[in-house]
Amino acid sequence: MAPISNVSNHLIKNADTLANEIVKGVLERLRLVIPTEEKERAIQMYTSFLGFLGKSLITEEEGVPGDLLEWSKKNAEDLVAAGGKLSEIVARYPGTREFFTEFLTSIGTEFKLSAPETIFLIKRVNVLLDISMNETVYAFERLSDNLMAKSQKEIAELSAPIVPIKDGVAVLPLIGVLDEYRVTYIFEKVVPRIVDLQIRQLITDYSGILTIDEDIARYLSQFENILSLLGIQAIVTGLRPELAQTIVHAGINMSATRTFAHVKQALESIEKTL
User: Fold this and answer.
1) For a FRET experiment, which of 11, 28, 169, 251 has its CA 20 to 30 Å from that of 117?
2) Distance separating alpha carbons of residues 219 and 28, to the nearest angstrom
3) What is the average pLDDT score of the chain?
4) β partners of residue 170
5) Nearest 5°: CA angle at 42, between 132 and 129?
6) Quick check: 6 pLDDT over 60?
């Protein structure tokens, strides 16, 4: 039986034992302590990994073991859920490669593989590790993007709540930093909601806004115009001097818009007209 076949049988028959050895060796090399559940998941993955590797040596099977891909994705999921950095996972790969190189070289010596056969074995493992790392990176980016989009939506909802005060009157307190995403959310989600609530007078309060640029100021001016076209009286409160200067520099004329220092003044004015 050719030496490479002996190695194949060794990896397949002893996959579980070797997987335990690999996980222990990698953790010691990286001086890393991980939860028992994560350790068991890694052992399960490497058991499948070694079985696949052993078969591929004699069948020249291409592809990637499914458990390796699932393990890589799970690492990304855990990292995103914990608010960790991608570097925490990527930094493990060089140490893992070093351990595997020594591990496979030792096997090559034990089974008297030729130098080209040992190199082939190491290269095959490195290819699989590259695929694992890439899958982790791609999964992390996808999950991070999804989480960011969800967070943006939640922040937009929290930063532009419609607060009904009385029949036909509501306050829209704008909070935080306004960006294009949040202004678009106001146009697409808040305006229809205002119409559904049959609001006739809307007080848009800017006192909670940290900063806006001239482009956002123009968008907000369009928002006031949309309200006017819908028959809703727009009232503005809480404009600090720096925000007012931004609006003026943007060339926006708010002379037709009722403005007050704060919401209380606006409500008192509305009371007088009712």
Assistant:
1) 28
2) 57
3) 84
4) 164, 202
5) 20
6) yes
In terms of Cβ atoms closer than 10 Å to its own Cβ (0-12, 13-18, 19+), residue 1 is exposed
Question: Which range, of 20-24, 112-116, 130-134, 208-212, averages the lowest pLDDT?
Answer: 208-212
Contacts of 269 (CB under 8 A, 6+ apart): 258, 260
Whole-number Å distance between alpha carbons of 45 and 67? 5
What does the pLDDT read at residue 199?
92
Residue 227 in this model has a pLDDT that exceeds 60: yes
Residue whose tokens read 């493992």: 125
Distance of CA 118 to the CA centre of its chain: 40
